[in-house]
């Protein structure tokens, strides 16, 4: 690595969700080439925003590409809620908790991880290694003038995380604690990897396009002085009725995180955006454009700028062929 040219910048890549072939194509498009089973660029590195797994057809390939790049120093990654869920789902609960697994095997949770477990079923050793690698993934990154987290940068909680875990990674104790609502570890995991949510009024539900019913909605954290629910909603599904116009109460305001306009550029994934990538704020970029729903796999090519520029997005539309499960010989490379 010492003989390499100076680092020009980072290419941040949003939620892959098992679109491994599209990930390989996006890396090629940005000038990365595979050598010895590892994608490399002479002057740039990748930062993955988490959520490599679940839903898509080439989950093993996605994990393989990212993991090799990270292990070779060609990329970094932050924890997505899906990697975190997989860790808790596959970890037995300590005795006395009254459940068998840290994340219970309910029909809903089974459905979320189903594709991943099926695709790794004939590769149990590889899955164990993937889980061990997920444990080493930090919950957030900050360096060289940029910040990266899967869903929400909440400074007080990140300070608390760094006090407990200076490297920003979980250990087993932290993982176990994080599955108990009300604990500090739970608040950190929930906020950083799932973001802020606002409960809907009693009896109101959103029947989302992904087949799930929701009693809360996802909110963002960069509005300067939000007044209504519509000022903070950040999700594909519209709020029912005229809830967009509903004023935020003081109590609701305290639930929200806040990211100011003078803070360093921040990159997030998580939010299932649609359409042509755009910047929600001059210092915030969301790179999740629903790749696995035949949206776009999106990257932002960052070269040190403090004010982000929408011209620096790069993306590939996910082709219908990505939907077809690969043949066995397709899935491993070298
Ligand atoms: Mn995601």
TrEMBL record:
Q: Name one Pfam family in it.
A: Metallophos
Calcineurin-like phosphoesterase domain segment(s): 12-102
* PANTHER family from the UniProt entry: BIS(5'-NUCLEOSYL)-TETRAPHOSPHATASE PRPE [ASYMMETRICAL] (PTHR42850:SF7), METALLOPHOSPHOESTERASE (PTHR42850)
Q: What is this protein called?
A: Metallophosphoesterase
């Amino acid at each position: 690595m010492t003989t390499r040219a100076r680092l020009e910048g980072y290419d941040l890549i949003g939620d892959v969700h098992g679109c491994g072939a599209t990930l390989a194509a996006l890396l090629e498009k940005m000038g990365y080439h595979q050598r010895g089973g590892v994608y490399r660029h002479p002057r740039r590195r990748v930062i993955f925003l988490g959520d490599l797994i679940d839903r898509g057809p080439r989950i093993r390939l996605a994990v393989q590409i990212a993991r090799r790049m990270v292990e070779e120093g060609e990329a970094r990654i932050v924890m997505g809620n899906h990697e975190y869920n997989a860790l808790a789902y596959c970890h037995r609960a300590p005795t006395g908790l009254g459940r068998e697994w840290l994340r219970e095997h309910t029909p809903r949770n089974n459905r979320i991880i189903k594709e991943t477990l099926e695709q790794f079923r004939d590769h149990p050793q590889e899955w164990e290694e993937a889980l061990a690698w997920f444990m080493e993934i930090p919950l957030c990154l900050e360096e060289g003038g940029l910040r990266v987290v899967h869903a929400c940068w909440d400074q007080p909680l990140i300070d608390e995380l760094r006090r407990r875990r200076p490297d920003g990674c979980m250990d087993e104790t932290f993982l176990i604690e994080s599955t108990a609502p009300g604990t500090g570890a739970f608040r950190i995991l929930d906020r950083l990897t799932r973001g802020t949510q606002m409960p809907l009024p009693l009896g109101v539900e959103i029947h989302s396009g992904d087949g799930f019913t929701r009693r809360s909605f996802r909110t963002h954290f960069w509005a300067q002085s939000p007044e209504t629910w519509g000022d903070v909603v950040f999700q594909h599904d519209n709020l029912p009725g005229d809830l967009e116009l509903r004023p935020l109460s003081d109590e609701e305001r305290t639930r929200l995180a806040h990211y100011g306009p003078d803070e360093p550029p921040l990159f997030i994934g998580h939010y299932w955006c649609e359409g042509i990538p755009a910047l929600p704020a001059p210092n915030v970029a969301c790179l999740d454009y629903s790749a696995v729903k035949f949206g776009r796999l999106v990257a932002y090519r960052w070269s040190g700028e403090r004010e982000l520029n929408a011209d620096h997005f790069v993306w590939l539309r996910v082709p219908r062929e990505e939907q077809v499960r690969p043949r066995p010989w397709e899935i491993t490379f070298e």
